[in-house]
Design brief:
mainly alpha; Arc Repressor Mutant, subunit A; two-stranded antiparallel ribbon; elongated
Length: 151
């Protein structure tokens, strides 16, 4: 099984937004960071926003950010929203015309494998894809005033 570029890029976009929660991010900066075309990323952003994973702000100072905390974004749900076809074999599709239906155990086995895959993804969230928050301890900044005049 291979996920589509849509799912791959959607995960990259969510990871980027998860790494920059303090601000709105633009399609242009994410596209440049990952080498993805802006029109393609725009479609992905629209889909993620429509499904409630991303919040977008229009306008000159607009951009996007996560609609939920990373720990509240299950990977399995995002994959289900971005994959158009999880029917791994033809006989799993709604309009199957397989001549072996009822005489073959492949569909049941493949369906079980897909279910195990999705169950595993459901156990993880976007937070699992992000680096752990690093507590940055900075030395206090001391302002030193000089009595010397600048010439």
């Amino acid at each position: 099984m291979r996920l589509t570029n849509l799912s791959d890029y959607a995960m990259r976009l969510l990871m980027y937004l998860g790494r920059h929660p303090e601000r709105l991010c633009t399609i242009a900066e994410v596209a440049q960071a990952y080498g993805i075309s802006e029109p393609h990323l725009m479609k992905i952003t629209h889909r993620l926003a429509r499904n409630g994973w991303v919040h977008t702000v229009r306008g000159k100072h607009g951009g996007m950010r996560l609609a939920h905390e990373p720990g509240a974004i299950p990977l399995g749900a995002v994959i289900r929203d971005t994959e158009n076809d999880l029917d791994l074999v033809e006989c799993l599709g709604a309009h199957s015309s397989c001549t072996l239906t009822g005489e073959c155990g492949l569909a049941h086995i493949v369906q079980g494998a897909l279910q195990a895959f999705m169950d595993h993804l459901d156990q993880h969230t976007l937070a699992d894809l992000l680096p752990p928050a690093q507590a940055v301890v900075e030395a206090p900044v001391r302002l030193v005033r000089s009595n010397r005049s600048v010439s």
